[in-house]
Amino acid sequence: MTASKRASHPSLGSDLPKVAAHVIQPAEYDELPELTDEMLAQGKVNRGGRPRSMNPKRLISIRLTEDVIQRWRATGPGWQTRMAEKLTRAAPK
Question: Are 69 and 75 in contact (CB under 8 A)?
C-alpha cells in the first residue's frame, strides 16, 4: 500500500527567519525588569528527566531455556516486570 499524499512536517506557526533576523533595540531593554537578589534567590534549577529510583535496577545476564522465555513472553507485555516480581517474592530472605 502506498500513500497518496506526502506527509508534511508539523509547523511551529511562527516566522522563524523573521525572528532570527530581529536585532534587539536598546528601547526593548526598558521593557525588562531589573533582576534583584531576591528574584535570583527564588530561582530553581530544573534538571529535567526522570527522578532517581530508590531501588534502581541493574542489567545482568542470565541463561534460561527457550521454553521458559516463550512461556513468560506469552503472558503479554510487561512479562519481564512480572518475572522480576516473582523472583523477588521467591528470593531467600
Answer: no
